[in-house]
Specification:
single chain, about 230 residues, alpha+beta, Cathepsin B, Chain A, six-stranded antiparallel beta sheet, two-stranded antiparallel sheet, 8 helices, about 25% strand, peptidase activity, hydrolase, nucleotide-binding, EC 3.4.22.-, Lactococcin-G-processing and transport ATP-binding protein LagD
């Protein structure tokens, strides 16, 4: 009878328990429910997912502004802002450019800098940046979250969290990183500590906040930290 009653209760309240599951039963018949994260939710955790064919740049920019600066912006908001000065015909055929992103950032009081760096210096990139990859002939903006001696960790607006070997990453990368700069940067933002692939074994967390001196190497100024 107890099982039948519980089943009926779950059916009647099914929409309220979306994303949860019963994990154990307590004495007396009480059931503990725990929120369950789907594979898709984990794949896009803390990332803004791309909704249109031409908006990978807007989604990548929104990810950095939301997670590293805590700004309440989304992909649609940034698209609207960039279209103010962008060539709309060009956007429809080629998407947004780094120049469009730079102009948008300046319009909201922030700064942007593009750096040409050598592949062997990827480990020195200490902030999340936008990079352009060419994947099977398709040019695509993504967020480079961090790199270590083995892997480059990417927040992809279409594919979610990915990691590439250095060689594979460099094959599709044009060598430029696009840094977003301004006041209110969160030096311990979640983009610097991307989730490991679902198949990976647990590893020691090597994340550490980045110091002011390292950030200033990328173009931050002292007043950005107050």
């Amino acid at each position: 009878m107890r099982i039948a009653t519980l089943t009926l209760l779950m059916l009647l309240t099914g929409t309220s328990w979306a994303g949860t599951m019963a994990v154990s039963a307590m004495p007396g018949g009480a059931v503990i429910f725990k929120k369950v994260e789907s594979i898709r939710e984990r794949r896009f955790a803390n990332l803004v997912e791309q909704k249109t064919d031409f908006s990978c740049g807007a989604a990548a920019l929104a990810t950095i502004l939301r997670q590293a600066y805590w700004l309440d912006v989304d992909e649609a908001h940034i698209i609207k802002g960039m279209l103010v000065t962008a060539d709309q015909d060009l956007v429809r055929t080629q998407g947004f450019s780094m120049l469009d992103m730079k102009r948008y950032l300046e319009s909201i009081g922030m700064r942007a800098r593009g750096y040409k760096i050598a592949p062997e210096t990827l480990l020195t990139v200490k902030i999340p940046v936008v990079v352009l990859l060419e994947i099977r002939g398709y040019k695509h903006f993504v967020v480079l979250q961090r790199a270590d001696k083995d892997w480059v960790y990417i927040g992809d607006p279409v594919l979610g969290h990915k990691r590439y070997s250095h060689d594979d990453f460099v094959k599709g990368w044009n060598g430029i990183v696009f840094a977003v700069l301004g006041e209110g940067y969160d030096k311990a933002n979640v983009l610097l500590d991307p989730p490991l692939p679902l198949t990976a074994k647990s590893q020691m967390n090597e994340f550490r906040p980045v110091g002011d001196a390292e950030l200033m190497d990328f173009g931050f100024i002292q007043s950005d930290f107050f």
